[in-house]
Amino acid sequence: MTETSETTVRKLVIIGAGPAGWTAALYASRAGVVPLVFEGEMGQLAQTTGIENYPGFPSGALEEYLTSAIDPDRLMLLPPHEGDHVTGPELVELMRAQALAAGAEVITESIQSVDLNSTPFVLNDSAGNTFRASAVIVATGASARYLGLASEERFKNRGVSACAVCDGALPRFRDKPVCVIGGGDAAVEEAVYLARFASKVYLVHRRDTLRASAAAASRVLHNPKIEILWNRVPLEVLGDDASGVTGAVLKSTVGEEPITIAVTGFFLGIGHQPNVGFLGGQLKLTSSGTIERPIPFQTKTSIPGVFAAGDVADDHYRQAVIAAASGAMAALDAQQYLVSTGLL
Ligand SMILES: Cc1cc2nc3c(=O)[nH]c(=O)nc-3n(C[C@H](O)[C@H](O)[C@H](O)COP(=O)(O)OP(=O)(O)OC[C@H]3O[C@@H](n4cnc5c(N)ncnc54)[C@H](O)[C@@H]3O)c2cc1C
């Protein structure tokens, strides 16, 4: 069982239990380092429904596999399985089961504060316990930014999405009009991606010039399927329980009349907030707020012995398979660090 005393120094603590955290835990366990995983609230993947692009899960009957692979007490906490694809919560649960079976330990608490300038590192959890570790992997993910409209919340996963790459190819958006909110690189990328599937893409921007780079901007300006609605902000997402999103009401920022557009998709392209608050500024961050990894293709951070994996350190790809891959890299980097410092 997990130690809660101050004195014990853990070889490796992993903060965060999404694809990055659980894959790091699996690789570390198999490398002979028993990691302690802190599992906070529900991560991004656990908030979504069908996952169609995680390798190894072709569509088809999954129930039997899920029942055999996931502890019944945990399985009943998941929404009943629907559809042909593995869902986000199921995928995270499968990763969790695999890592625990390999020997990882878990505490279902979040880390509230850390001292990364002390040796060993000190971590304080939400239950008031203090832990010490020789190496730490930060895999706390990021939170997609929403506008905070009640109607947005109502239609999440039913037309409201913060991830075009994840959801854009879904039948409800194919050959249908959709809208993307924002004017920066993230929004432009989402709009160009969605234009492959949707019949029309409205890019809704609150100003009269795009914040995106010139190259990115020209991709939307010259795409016949994309119409930019300048000086507009969403007032409300329209829809009903049967069909989900059916439209949006857009207010003018320059005093014109509000307009209503008919769309089946309302995509947020206003950025992601990496979950780094608990670090108290102790790790160097990039200009977009993700944890800086100074050596390309390695997971080391600005403090030796601390590694970063997943969306908390990735402001570009933000996909489950890439988060999982960087979790594996972080575990191998941490294991090497422990060996090279004689701690393993
Ligand atoms: C709506 C939506 C749909 C998506 N659909 C897809 C898809 O179809 N396919 C795909 O590949 N990707 C999809 N993504 C992206 C994917 O979810 C992320 O890329 C992936 O989850 C990142 O993994 P992660 O482990 O870095 O972070 P997360 O999955 O966000 O996990 C981070 C974990 O850290 C925990 N945590 C945070 N702070 C603390 C703390 N202080 N202490 C302890 N724990 C903490 C969180 O509670 C969470 O459990 C989607 C994202 C969203 C928002």
Please characterize this protein's 3D structure.
With 344 residues, the chain is an alpha/beta fold. 25% of the residues lie in helices and 24% in strands. The chain has 9 helices and 17 strands. Strands 1, 2, 3, 4, 5, 6 and 17 form a 7-stranded mixed sheet that branches. A 5-stranded parallel sheet has the order 8-15-9-10-11, with helices on one face. β10 (200-204), α8 (214-221) and β11 form a beta-alpha-beta unit. The chain is globular, with a radius of gyration of 22 Å. The mean pLDDT is 93. The structure holds flavin-adenine dinucleotide.
Bound molecules: flavin-adenine dinucleotide
The number of helical segments is 9
Would you report the number of β strands?
Answer: 17
Decide which structural class fits the backbone. alpha/beta
- Please give the share of residues in helix: 10-25%
Strand content: 15-25%
Please identify which CATH superfamily of the largest domain we are dealing with: FAD/NAD(P)-binding domain
Query: SSE order in H/E notation?
Result: EHEHHHEEEEEHEHEHEHEEEEEEEH
Q: How far do the termini sit from each other?
A: 21 Å
CATH fold-type name of the largest domain: FAD/NAD(P)-binding domain
CATH level-two architecture of the largest domain: 3-Layer(bba) Sandwich
**Rg estimate, integer Å:** 22 Å
Major β-sheet profile? 7 strands, mixed
Q: CATH class of the largest domain, anyone? A: Alpha Beta
Integer tally of domains? 2
Q: Which descriptor suits the 3D outline?
A: globular
Low-confidence stretches: none
Name the average pLDDT. 93
